[in-house]
Amino acid sequence: MAICPFATYRPISTNHGGAMSAHLGLVVHVQQGDGSLFGFFNNPSARVSAHFWCSKTGHLEQYLDTDVVAWAEVNGNSSYVSCEFEGFDTESMTNAQLLSGAALFKWLSGDYGIQITGPVPHGQEGLTPHCNLDGSPDPAWGDHPCPGLIRLHQMPAIVYLASPPPSPTPAPSKEYEIMDSTTAANGDIVSHAVTPAGHYLEITRKSGDQGTAANNGLSIIDITAAFPQFTVQP
């Protein structure tokens, strides 16, 4: 049984199939309305459902175990987890919805080993829309333009927010000149430095005993290497 730990579990008793055959990714849907979908999906006459619903405030409701087939996108039902996002296709998803969608995608990735990537075409692993990637309806997936172009263009943000942060880049030189230092609210000391080669660094020394002998408690990010267009102003 796979229940998301940060969603409100409200199991429906109808409108679902048997066991999933695979877990390729997460499908983004638009509700075309407001308010919880529990009552609608729990009505036998609806003959549709989704695993999750995400409100505009970012609250998640889970209606089906993610190992059970939801009736959301026809040919994609048995291999994708589905989430309906509150609102209309003429509206953008809220920041709270993007963050909750990312958290859900990340949780699914951890549970099922799904690659955090997308938007991907139907049949591939990752985050995908109900429609095709160009916004056109897919007849094999119910022939809907859902979630609409506005929300389709927001989907890369969900992938970005679900992705692990990049590893800090080691300093390109053993020598650097500290330019400034500040103490963060948590006690970390954040400094900025420049190397003889002109690389701009952000150096964080963890407070207390959080550091290790290997890195002496330092996290060094080479901003110039990560963003070549960045230059240090004289």
Account of the protein in words:
This protein is an alpha/beta fold. It is 16% helix and 24% strand. It has 5 helices and 12 strands. It has helices at 38-41, 95-112, 149-152, 155-162, 223-226; strands spanning 8-9, 16-19, 25-30, 52-54, 60-62, 68-70, 80-85, 126-129, 177-183, 189-194, 200-205, 218-222. The strands form 3 sheets. Strands 1-5-4-7-3-8 form a 6-stranded mixed β-sheet, with helices on one face. The longest helix is centred in the middle third of the chain and has 18 residues, at 95-112. The radius of gyration is 22 Å and the shape is elongated.
Characteristics:
2 domains, elongated, alpha/beta, 24% strand, disordered C terminus, 12 strands, single chain, Lysozyme-like, 234 residues, six-stranded mixed β-sheet, four-stranded antiparallel β-sheet
Please describe the topology of this protein.
Blueprint: E1 8-9, E2 16-19, E3 25-30, H1 38-41, E4 52-54, E5 60-62, E6 68-70, E7 80-85, H2 95-112, E8 126-129, H3 149-152, H4 155-162, E9 177-183, E10 189-194, E11 200-205, E12 218-222, H5 223-226
Parallel strand pairs: 1-5, 3-7, 3-8, 4-7
Antiparallel strand pairs: 2-6, 4-5, 9-10, 10-11, 11-12
| Poorly predicted ranges | 209-215, 230-234
The CATH class of the largest domain is identified as Alpha Beta
Overall tally of domains: 2
Number of strands: 12
Helix percent band: 10-25%
What is the level-2 CATH architecture name of the largest domain?
3-Layer(aba) Sandwich
Judged by helices, strands and strand pairing, the structural class is alpha/beta
How far is the N terminus from the C terminus? 59 Å
Profile the largest sheet.
6 strands, mixed
| DSSP summary: helix tally | 5
Q: Strand percentage, roughly?
A: 15-25%
Radius of gyration: 22 Å
